UniProtKB/TrEMBL annotation:
Entries under PANTHER family matching the protein: AMINO-ACID AMINOTRANSFERASE, AMINODEOXYCHORISMATE LYASE
NCBIfam families attached to this UniProt entry: PRK07849.1-1, PRK07849.1-2
GO biological process annotation, one example: carboxylic acid biosynthetic process
Top-level taxonomic group: Bacteria
EC number of this enzyme: 4.1.3.38
Entry keywords, A to Z: Lyase
Protein name: Aminodeoxychorismate lyase
Gene Ontology molecular-function annotations: 4-amino-4-deoxychorismate lyase activity
First-tier enzyme category under EC: lyase
Cellular component, GO, one term: cytosol
The family this protein is said to belong to: Belongs to the class-IV pyridoxal-phosphate-dependent aminotransferase family.
InterPro entries: Aminotrans_IV, Aminotransferase-like, BCAT-like_C, BCAT-like_N, Class-IV_PLP-Dep_Aminotrnsfr
Length: 287
């Protein structure tokens, strides 16, 4: 089992410690590119087809050349195999506009160990702080150049929000729009429980469509949950039976404290965790 993996889009396994990018790569100097993060489990890239579809949509939003999905799928499979079956890994697919001086886009896949916070969030849940995102739910529609629905490499403000929250001892963040609507986490989708109904804000409100939430909704419907896309206010979080932050690597993190308020654990919590687990292993497996 490798402890870190680097595979370029041509499927070649590279030394993860050898330099790969040039100093004028637009990923490095502008954050001008797109990426995906996904879980490697049992030597397989989970929900890879959902991630490849979103990579295509993100690339289109940035006017990048259309990604060659066959090559990306192959590179992801090579990298996952290289990582091995012993432990879960965090895979990134990175696709930038390439060098400022011209040439082809930059495209590579990496796999590394899960951050320590991941196991903690899965097992114990997380404390969350709501923070203003500073824009309206309409920005995605009125200003498409803001790229709100694309997973771009420009994550500096998302990381800053997490550092801000950490100063107040919160593990994570839920962004709220200027109208006071719940949006998403800096690296996750918000889903609430109301009895056997699961609700998430619609992607048309300027948020990234989450692959984990989508996979969960597919299996949850079969398990007798009603799944809805609907606008949410912070009060809906507080009065819900459970708030979850879903993401590809952490999977399901239950919010145990929201803005200092302790949230109870519903009788369905274990079922939701299992459904997410089943979902990421069964939905969007490699074609
Ligand atoms: N929203 C944002 C801003 C994210 O960065 C992420 C994941 O990285 C998500 C939502 C959740 O998406 P996924 O479930 O595909 O990981």
């Amino acid at each position: 089992m490798a402890d870190r993996v680097l595979v370029t889009l041509d499927g070649v396994v590279r030394d993860p410690d050898a330099p790969l990018l040039c100093a004028d790569d637009l990923a490095a100097v502008r954050g001008d590119g797109v990426f995906e993060t996904l879980l490697v489990r049992a030597g397989r890239p989970c929900t890879i087809e959902l991630h490849l579809s979103r990579l295509q949509r993100s690339a289109e939003a940035l006017d990048l050349p259309e990604p060659d999905v066959v090559k990306w799928r192959n590179a992801a499979e090579v990298a996952a195999k290289q990582w091995g079956t012993e432990a879960e890994g965090a895979m990134r697919l990175v696709y930038s506009r390439g060098r400022e001086s011209g040439g082809d886009p930059t495209a590579f896949v990496t796999v590394g160990p899960l951050a320590e916070r991941v196991q903690r969030a899965r097992a114990d849940g997380i404390s969350v702080m709501t923070l203003a995102r500073g824009h309206s739910t309409e920005l995605g529609q009125t200003a498409p150049w803001q790229l709100l629905g694309a997973k771009t490499l420009s994550y500096a403000t998302n990381m800053a929000a997490l550092r801000f929250a950490a100063r107040y001892e919160a593990d994570d963040v839920i962004f709220v729009s200027s109208e006071g609507r719940v949006l998403e986490g800096p690296r996750s989708t918000v889903v609430i429980e109301r009895g056997r109904t699961l609700i998430t804000p619609p992607a048309t409100q300027g948020i990234l469509p989450g692959t984990t939430q989508r996979a969960l909704f597919e299996v949850a419907e079969d398990a007798g949950f009603a799944c809805e896309y609907a606008p949410l206010f912070p009060a809906d979080l507080i009065t819900s039976d459970g708030v979850w932050l879903l993401s590809s690597v952490t999977l399901a993190a239950r919010v145990h404290t929201l803005d200092g308020l302790v949230m109870r654990r519903s009788a369905r919590a274990d079922e939701i965790v299992s459904l997410v687990d089943v979902a990421v292993e069964s939905i969007g497996a490699s074609k």
